[in-house]
Amino acid sequence: MTPYPEGFRRETAVGIGAVERALELGVADADAVWSDSRALAARLAAGPTRSLGLSKVLLNKSFETDLSTSLDLEGAYQSLATTSGDLAEGMAAFTEKRDPRFTGR
Fold this sequence. Notes:
The protein is an all-alpha fold. It has helices spanning 10-15, 30-45, 49-62, 67-82, 85-96. The longest helix has 16 residues, at 30-45.
């Protein structure tokens, strides 16, 4: 992290939002790490996977494209995301105050 060249403790990383969670090295056993990883994977898989995938592609491309190209790609991918059934489901779930049931389409 550029603003912290000396590094910082995991509690600080979580506190400032640099990471969502951090396990203490040497304390967390393999089962805890595996369990935590599976829970995160399940949460992501239950989300709007098409939109998450588009976001990942944009993030990866951002390291090799200029700002103008990145913004053009973002606009194109936003257009793709707005045609998703998951967008309609997310909006309906929000309006109906219920959990969404995303399909990845």
